[in-house]
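# step 3/5: fold
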Amino acid sequence: MIASSARTALRLLLVFSLGFGALAHAQGSRNLAPGFTERTAASKLLILPVDMELYSISAGGVQEPKADWTESAVKNFKTGLDGRKTLLGANIVQLEEKDLDELAEINALHGAVAQSVFLHHMLGVAKLPTKAGVLDWSMGDSVKLLKDKTGADYALFTWIRDSYASSERKAAIVVMALLGVGIAGGAQVGYASLVDLNNGRIVWFNDLRRASGDLREPESAQETVETLLKGFPAAR
């Protein structure tokens, strides 16, 4: 009787383990384009400056851009990326803000494409039948300029919008909560895309969406970088 129960428990554990493994694989593959698994050790990675904006939310819910917050956050985010060299690989090239003046449209294009990936693939809102449920998005020939300029094989694009409730907004949240009405505070939304510069295909994508995090603080910004790059394909 005991042996039978032990065998049953073992089978259940095995089934659970296999199921968990399959789920983890499905979640991992969801972030990868079909056929892509990793970068080669010799591949060169271009890291573009983050496309970032920080806002303060007024009592009425209006988002007001904060240039000084954004400037600090961009520096903190860059420092966070610099600290992830082991993950990103040794063969790295970076573009500075001044280099992007002529390539601003490419960064803007990534923001638009990433938004589409986020909505239709990651969130599953109005799924596109032509995508067959897989990561199948491209930035097309637009990235050829980056390839020609840097000789890189891949490019890491990042896009972040972060908002923080003002003191007036926080007070409004408390008052409305007492009345049984919930209103939102700040939110942190980000996208990270690894793009193959040989064909423009997005081969890895991850998103960040939460009501926590503070890019204005160096330590918190480090955590944001780590979370956004979770599952990033290492160079092997």
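# step 4/5: annotate
Residues 60 and 130 are 41 Å apart (CA to CA).
# step 5/5: archive (pending)
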